[in-house]
């Protein structure tokens, strides 16, 4: 295996290598041959949760020693191993370490001391979801998890509303419906969202729809709110006002004008795409009628 047994030397002392190893996000076969080689040959595997990683190692018959990676034991345990010349593999529960997990703290500490840090690339929930989303992603912003508190989450989404980049989020099952509802309010109902859940697993689901329809889709089946989620939302339309402004404009115009006239005027005011505003207007009109008791 390339590099696995190699140790740097500084002042005559051997130095270990920290390998940052991507592991499967669901399907256990989504692991590279190089990652398996590294896991077999390092002295220790530093894991986010040793119980989760043990299942992966047992599946491939790897008897590596495991240690739990916690903030308080990073320097005392992992860095000590590197100092004595042992190499260590850093893994997360799923996917690439250092993405929405504490692994970045260890890699920063190792690099600060002067140890070699070597990435072993592989599975990534973000890239997997983007590859199947059907949304242009020449530029995207990976946010990670939104704040758990509703008020903080809404403030963050309002801050992101004008960004022209595709927006990518992780979300927990018990918050996904609330987060998507807040996205609609902050970003506008016309933007498209791709809801990717349980990627590479038995119940993998990838659903695309306007934000206007996303909450209803999630609530239509309890199973749709279970699992691990990646949410991908279109960025603000180039040259257009943000979706929330478009929605506010339509709400005002629809109260005074017929639907087609309201859409035509909103298009001129906001610069948003007419077809998307038309779909949003239909949704708003339906909600207004429902609220007033009309059929």
Short overview:
With 295 residues, the chain is of the alpha/beta class. 42% of the residues lie in helices and 19% in strands.
Offer a few descriptive terms.
19% strand; Cobalt-precorrin-4 Transmethylase, domain 1; alpha/beta; 295 residues; 3 domains; five-stranded mixed β-sheet; Methyltransferase, Cobalt-precorrin-4 Transmethylase, Domain 2; 11 helices; five-stranded parallel β-sheet; disordered N terminus
SS content category: alpha/beta
**Oligomer description:** single chain
The overall number of domains is: 3
Q: Which sheet architecture does the biggest sheet show?
A: 5 strands, parallel
Order of helices and strands: EEEHEHEHEHEHEHEHEEHEHHH
Mean pLDDT: 87
If you compute it from the alpha carbons, what radius of gyration comes out, rounded to the nearest whole angstrom? Answer: 24 Å
Low-confidence parts, pLDDT < 50 over ≥5 residues? Answer: 1-8
Query: Could you give the distance between the termini?
Result: 69 Å
Can you count the beta strands?
12
What's the arrangement of strands in the largest beta sheet?
5-4-6-3-7
The CATH architecture category of the largest domain equals: 3-Layer(aba) Sandwich
Q: Hey, roughly how much beta strand do the residues contain?
A: 15-25%
Question: DSSP helix count?
Answer: 11
CATH class of the largest domain: Alpha Beta
Helical content (DSSP H or I, runs of 4+): 40-55%
Molecular shape: elongated
Topology-level CATH name of the largest domain: Cobalt-precorrin-4 Transmethylase, domain 1
CATH superfamily of the largest domain: Tetrapyrrole methylase, N-terminal domain
């Amino acid at each position: 295996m390339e590099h696995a047994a190699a140790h740097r030397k500084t002042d005559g002392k051997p130095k270990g290598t920290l390998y940052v190893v991507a592991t499967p996000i669901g399907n256990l076969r989504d692991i590279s041959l190089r990652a398996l080689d590294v896991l077999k040959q390092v002295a220790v595997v530093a894991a986010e949760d040793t119980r989760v990683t043990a299942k992966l190692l047992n599946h491939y018959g790897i008897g590596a020693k495991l240690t739990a990676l916690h903030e308080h034991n990073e320097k005392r345990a992992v860095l000590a191993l590197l100092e004595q010349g042992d190499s260590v593999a850093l893994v997360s529960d799923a996917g690439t370490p250092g993405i929405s997990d504490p692994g970045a703290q260890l890699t920063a500490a190792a690099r600060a001391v002067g140890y070699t840090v070597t990435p072993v690339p592989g599975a990534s929930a973000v890239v997997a979801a983007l590859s199947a989303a059907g949304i242009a992603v020449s530029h995207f912003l990976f946010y990670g998890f939104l704040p758990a508190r509703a008020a903080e989450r809404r403030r963050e989404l309002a801050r992101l509303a004008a960004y022209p980049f595709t927006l990518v989020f992780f979300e927990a099952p018990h918050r996904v419906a609330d987060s998507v509802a807040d996205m609609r309010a902050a970003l506008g109902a016309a933007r498209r969202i791709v809801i990717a859940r349980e990627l590479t697993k038995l119940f993998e689901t990838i659903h695309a729809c306007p934000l206007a329809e996303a909450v209803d889709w999630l609530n239509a089946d309890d199973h749709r709110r279970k699992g691990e989620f990646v949410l991908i939302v279109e960025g603000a339309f180039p040259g257009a006002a943000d979706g929330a402004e478009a929605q506010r404009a339509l709400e005002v115009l629809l109260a005074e004008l017929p639907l087609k006239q309201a859409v035509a005027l909103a298009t001129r005011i906001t610069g948003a795409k007419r077809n998307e505003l038309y779909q949003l207007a239909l949704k708003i009109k339906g909600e207004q009628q429902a609220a007033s008791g009309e059929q």
